Amino acid sequence: MTTGVALITAVALTFVPSVKDPQESAPPAQTTSAVRVATAPIQLTAAVQPLVTTPLPNLLVEWVDRIVVPPSASAPFPTPQFPPVVGGTSVSSFIKNTYNAIEPWVQWGFELVAYGVGWVPYVGWLAPQIMIFYNLGERIVRSITFNVAD
After folding, report:
1. Closest alpha carbon to 114 in 72, 81, 70
2. pTM above 0.70, yes or no
């Protein structure tokens, strides 16, 4: 890139005509017009607005609450959620409908286990991992089920 810039600069300087103006040696003519630049007034907002300070939280109390209070204390009790059922008459639709009927109960069971483990001291912090592994396994089982059904 440096070589390219140097080459372009050299070419530009080569082709620019250097003609000396005969009036350069003469002193410049004095003009009587004065140029006046006017700008709009500027208001500095940093100097106008007062400094707002927020009270610092009691970090030690919040840290102890986070360690002592189990994660499931603020979580609602899980309830199963069911998708709409579409009727079919083939074996493929029977397999898919069976999976769709059973899967919400399995998910609810895993959510119930994660909720219960959330109350166990020290182990409760690992409760969200249960749902992570459930989601991984559920995708695999769903893929296998629907591929077999299709």
Report:
1. 72
2. no
Q: What is the CA radius of gyration of the chain?
A: 38
**Confidence at residue 46, expressed as pLDDT on a 0 to 100 scale:** 61
Each residue's pLDDT tens digit, 7-52: 777 777 666 655 555 555 555 556 566 666 677 777 766 655 666 6
Residues 6+ apart with CB under 8 A from 73: 118, 119
Do 107 and 80 form a contact (C-beta atoms < 8 A)? yes
> Cα–Cα distance between 45 and 69 in angstroms, integer?
44
For 8, 52, 73, the CA distances from 47, given in Å and listed in that order, are 48, 13, 47
End-to-end CA gap in the chain:
58
Task: Give CA–CA dist 133/137, Å, rounded.
Answer: 6
In sequence order, the 6+-apart residues with CB closer than 8 A to the CB of 125 are 71
